[in-house]
From TrEMBL:
GO terms for molecular function: acyltransferase activity, transferring groups other than amino-acyl groups. This is GNAT superfamily N-acetyltransferase. SUPFAM superfamilies: Acyl-CoA N-acyltransferases (Nat). The lineage of its organism: Bacteria, Bacillati, Actinomycetota, Actinomycetes, Propionibacteriales. Residues 124-260 form the N-acetyltransferase domain. It comes from Actinopolymorpha pittospori. It comes from the Bacteria. InterPro entries: Acyl_CoA_acyltransferase, GNAT_dom.
Length: 260
């Protein structure tokens, strides 16, 4: 049965934004002035997950969040979705000093409808990383695939594997002894949604089905853990692949970043 986009989006907003659990050790979720935010500290993610604003309340709420995170000395992100209100919230954020990063597409699939059969090119294997000391291999792939510094990512994943191992699945694809793709899945307790993140493949190994195999393995784990949906903020590169696998686009999300 196809995903009922309206029903699933409302469920996502409720469970993963309004009532979101903290996403890692040491993080806390706070609710104030029609805004739900996470304070993740130096190693974690800081930002606004949900807001229920209108044209009369938006500017004051934005200013309050800026003050809050500036007092903490933290850069933070306002995670804006295309269905959020007021309709000009993006422009209000820009006027307040936020910078937009590339938008992504919120995509969701029923776990039961996804293939869990892992098909890999010859000579490539998938490994589940459970040892915090092995995270360096994952971060090396992340840095090469996305061209980003992985220091904060390294600290966050190590902390999760050490303190909350049931909340994360970290996957590494290896060709011989060479890591070529890395991905992870977050499994928030008490929700219907497991979330796919990463999925970075080295340029010379793209187009061979390795990313697709990591999705299948993570779907299998999500099914075993009893999750109903898989959710991903898809880049332009991964969106066509996920669409062919059965994921449906529900909204777009744009990170608006405010630097401390």
């Amino acid at each position: 049965m196809p995903v009922d986009s309206g029903v699933v989006l409302a469920c996502f907003d409720q469970q993963m934004r309004r009532d979101a659990p903290p996403d890692g050790p040491g993080a806390r979720v706070e609710r104030a002035d029609d805004v739900v935010r996470q304070v993740g500290g130096d190693a974690g993610w800081n930002g606004v997950l949900w807001s229920e604003l209108d044209a009369d309340t938006a500017d004051a709420a934005i200013a309050a969040q800026v003050r809050h995170f500036r007092e903490l000395g933290q850069e933070f992100e306002w995670k804006l979705y295309s269905h959020d209100r007021p309709v000009d919230l993006a422009e209000r954020l820009r006027r307040a000093g936020f910078a937009a990063e590339p938008p992504e597409t919120l995509m969701v699939a029923e776990v039961a409808a996804l293939t869990t059969e892992v098909e890999l090119p010859d000579g490539v294997d998938l490994r589940l990383i459970t040892d915090p000391e092995a995270v360096d291999l994952v971060v090396d792939v992340h840095e090469q695939a996305f061209g980003e510094d992985g220091s904060r990512f390294r600290d966050s994943i190590r902390a999760q594997l050490a303190e909350q191992p049931d909340r994360v699945a970290v996957v590494l694809a290896v060709a011989g002894d060479v890591p070529v793709c890395a991905a992870r899945m977050e499994m928030p307790p008490g929700t219907d949604f497991a979330s796919l993140w990463g999925g970075g493949t080295l340029p010379t190994w793209r187009g061979r089905g390795i990313y697709r195999a990591t999705v299948a393995l993570r779907a299998r784990i999500a099914a075993e853990r009893g999750y109903r949906y898989l959710q991903v903020d898809a880049s332009d590169q991964s969106q066509p692949i996920l669409g062919r696998l059965g994921f449906v686009a529900l909204s777009t999300t744009t990170p608006y970043v405010y630097e401390a």
